[in-house]
Predict the structure.
Amino acid sequence: MNSAVNNAATRTGGVISESQRNAKRTKADIMAMIDEAGVHFVRIFFTDILGRLKGMSITRSEIEDVLEQGQGFDGSSIEGFVRIEESDLMAIPDLRTFRILPWDIGGEKVAMMIADIQMPDGTPYGGDPRYVLRRALKRLEDKGWTGYLGPEIEYFCFGSDEKPEAVDHDGYFDFGHDDIGTEARKRTVNALELMGIPVECSHHEVAASQHEIDLKYQEAFVMADFAQIYKYVVKEISRQQGLYATFMPKPIFGQNGSGMHVHMSLFEGERNLFFDKDAEYHLSEMARQFIAGILKHVSAMTLVTNQWVNSYKRLVPGYEAPVYVSWGRRNRSSMVRVPMYRVGKEKATRVELRSPDPSCNPYLAFAMMLEAGLDGIENKLELADAIEDNIYGMSADERRKRGIHAIPGSLDSAIVAFENSDFCKRVLGDHIFNKLIDNKRLEWDEYRTHVSQFENDKYLKML
């Protein structure tokens, strides 16, 4: 990255204060930043229901009109979007998301924005995942509350996209002196910070070639945008280094998979509603109800937080991924964990959901998590006692006596739990709810009828 691009990125999208970052930008501000940095193309991104980034590039000569009116496109070929006879949609750029990419593309400076999707008459499009999260957060805002999230997003960095072959042999928190994956991770952190996305820490994960970059906690809507940009930047910087980054939950048999533990808290102004100095574990009654809501709905919403056939190769005992519906503090076999309170860190009191994986759609997943917690609060759900024993070491009979059950163990089971949930249908809306079921049924049918190499190796000579 040359100094001109670095300077432009720092001025326009670099690390700035929260008040500056959240200041309302005007179209004139965006045009001035584009011209100052010499931007030739602006990429307009949006997200399909499966969480994949889609978009289009707009030239400098056309971007002013797009900022004013939006960009029309045919949504009939976007997964989970409209039918052919209803295909006209509008991408409306969110000015707050403007960022200059800290690398050139084809010798040109390029910026990006994230768009909301609307119908031609200006009404929100029900199939837009961003709209689902907006709707969920409006319920919190009506109560005067703000939801904050901090995901721990893990990924693998391989030598190519052909085979999941490791490029290092490091482990948890190792510093590899000749590790090209670690170099790519550091370059990724630098790029994220140049784009105004604060990073809390980064490190090597448990498995070979596995990494984690933790973003500093943000308001939920901002964090969903950041998560999408994060995945885009991780992949691009890895590609520039001759590597391939993947957020596939379980790419290597016998190794830990990649998770996306999500830390959550609710605030009223500057007050953390989850903290109570006089309560057990310093956990407020509201926080306990929030956890109870998560545990009540976690099985049904697993189709959203763990949406692929491969997701369920990670959700098995023995590899740190939680599968049993329970909560605890020190217990990392629990579905929900409450990090230990530190004196003077009241604002850091939070709950951590450990089952999601990084291949989920963050807009839909965050909406489900916050709505589940809110349901627990509104219905004053009672939280069962914390479980601090190792659940993986319990017998099935002991788990049954203690009321501990597992989340769905396959995509097929997750579909059934999801489609029987009125809660999931309400949160997502009819359009996304039904489209997601259709898509996942098709995926499961493709998987269950596929004859794998495992089957040929095991049965061909035997039977």
Residues 1-20 have pLDDT under 50 and may be disordered.
